[in-house]
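Hi F.,

I've been meaning to write this up properly since the lab meeting, where we talked about keeping a consistent format for the predictions we share between groups. The idea is simple: the sequence comes first, exactly as it goes in, then the structure tokens exactly as they come out, then a line or two of notes. No screenshots and no reformatting. I'm using this chain as the first example so we have something concrete to point to.
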Amino acid sequence: MRVLAILLALLSVALAEILQNGQLRTNPYPGQVGAIAITASNSSAWKAYPPNATELSYKGRWDSKYISWWSAPGLKFGFTGDNVAISFGNYTDAGVLVAYRVDGQDWQFSNVTANATYLFITPSTTGVNLTTPASAVQTFEMRVTNWAYGVQLAGVWTSSSGGLVKIPNYPMNIEIIGDSLSAGQYATYEGISSYSWGLGEGFGNVEFSITAYPGICLHDSRCYGNLRGQTYQWLHTSDTSGRAIEIWGDNPELWDFATHQAANVVVINLGTNDNNTSNNITNTEYYQSYIQLIDEVHGVWPKAQIILISLWNGFGAVGNTYEQGGAFITEIYQVYQYFNSGEYAKQSFVHYFNTTGILQHNDINPQYHPTDVGHVKLASHLLQYIKLNFGFVFGATGPEVQHDTLYWNDQQDY
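Output, unedited:
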């Protein structure tokens, strides 16, 4: 038992660390906030807002119980005053890591848990009242970093002298549909280190949603513990996680597309899991399922431009060099051709994005997923592709997108 206790203690420490090529990253999660108690004796100092307050803008997918799902879901609102606290409900995972920031300040991180209220903003919070008076509106944003965990919003509190303000959505919206490669699995800060995050947040002036979950297939089949594929799950609010099954069973809520902002661009990166022989999905099934998913997307968002990402599927040594693998190369291109011929020819809403040459073998980590640099490279190419082809404009003017990517050499001599 003593050995088990020691191992558990070591594991708990490891979970709070980030390793960079075996080296500990110092202060990997700056910004930890504490829990507070709002009671009858001090409630007069606070102004309460329920989770359905119109001032709150939910990012990504949240269900009717105000539970977050998929990768990097978030919350955004304007506030006045010196204090902001957030209460989390019973369905919040224990110790889930959230990222948060004020206006254009760097991302901060804090672990939160169920049935607790955390004080995120105080007069001493970096950026609060930095260049504006307390009466001015500042923006607060929070994101769930891990694809496997979620939070349930129970309410938001401001100081009694302040309040919440609705922040209007940006006019353009991007949807990313994918698996672990899009969800950010094995990236340093997971969801907010992914290329999907780099794409959406990188524009700085678009809304975006990352409907991606590790192990999921495009074809509606059991894959790596996921009971359904994206042709089914994308139409629903929750993902394929164990917590989703625990809460919703086999009857998950449908996603109400009509009440949410339509996507202008949809990026699809699916097939790596379908390609694994252990999942027994044929090339024909994959092709037909891709047609089905695009029909589903086009059915709810008929004006959206859809981008199909080719699969790099890892790199291998060939002779004395390396070469990119690839998967379903023919099938993905045939799907693109299908939607650019016949009855679809004049619409031209499906596009093919060839990843060949963007990533190299050292952009893939030992867990077979892109490194942080690999995610940045892919996001950068997608940003330019969407900008040049669909008239998007870069709106990011300086605030960080990915956190803690400031690497440099400060030695003049070697």
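Notes:
The mean pLDDT is 92.
The longest strand covers residues 68-80.

If this format works for you, I'll send the rest the same way.

G.
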